[in-house]
């Protein structure tokens, strides 16, 4: 099966030609998608009709081990019966729009911050795959930032300064910055993980900044104004010329490489309009030739 990709942004992101991913089982086509991810970092597939189980099974075929220790699983069980299938929706178990003070809604507001899925876990996340199930009658876009281009644009002295630095990532940290409160038991389950500041894709040799709103502090050696450095890098990495904004259509299925991008949801009136999305994220494990290397 032949899949072609058409660029959506000068730097990254592409739309795939028509294909039913439920029917993709052959290794040649799966490898073509992986190669597209290496080149574009974000791929858009139109008119997909996955059930939650079919979406999960495709993710396994494409990329192996799934991320099941999600932050939201500490607060509540998945309504899909599998913690690998993340409910990125503003509805309750009965399908009704969440109340404004719903704890699930308040937790999900942090998705509007620039972030990287599963950076708070070791092993970190690799691919995220988000399916649009039900969309509101208003724009509810998602933005992606190319962290490879952001790294390339840094001055050489800044690149040298970042080499070898490690950062603590915590999903609790990103939520606390918005005033979300965790119980002691919940906090105990959300200790976070330590990640390198810079990653290299072994298949392409391209380097990228590895940042997120989950990044709480720099470790290893004294870094003057370390939190200001993180803030400055986040601002640099999300310059408009590094950002692709995706306007969702029903049936869209978007895959992105968390090691090469950040993303954020854009706000809409989520107390009035229903929006249902399902996400599956894989982990950066398996074939050593595909695991990103610390720089």
Give the key terms:
295 residues, alpha+beta, Double-stranded beta-helix, three-stranded antiparallel β-sheet, 9 helices
Break the fold down into its secondary structure elements and pairings.
Blueprint: E1 5-7, E2 14-16, H1 27-40, E3 42-45, H2 52-63, H3 72-75, E4 86-87, H4 103-108, E5 125-134, E6 142-146, H5 147-152, H6 156-162, E7 166-169, H7 171-176, H8 184-188, E8 193-196, E9 198-200, E10 207-209, E11 215-218, H9 226-237, E12 243-246, E13 253-257, E14 261-265, E15 276-283, E16 293-294
Parallel strand pairs: 2-3
Antiparallel strand pairs: 1-2, 3-13, 4-15, 5-13, 5-15, 6-12, 6-14, 7-8, 7-11, 9-10, 9-16
Characterization of this structure:
The protein has helices spanning 27-40, 52-63, 72-75, 103-108, 147-152, 156-162, 171-176, 184-188, 226-237, and strands at 5-7, 14-16, 42-45, 86-87, 125-134, 142-146, 166-169, 193-196, 198-200, 207-209, 215-218, 243-246, 253-257, 261-265, 276-283, 293-294. With 295 residues, it is of the alpha+beta class. It has a single domain, classed as 4-Layer Sandwich (Double-stranded beta-helix), CATH 3.60.130.10. A seven-stranded mixed β-sheet has the order 1-2-3-13-5-15-4, with helices on one face. It has a three-stranded antiparallel β-sheet with strand order 12-6-14. Strand 2, helix 1 (27-40) and strand 3 form a beta-alpha-beta unit. The mean pLDDT is 93.
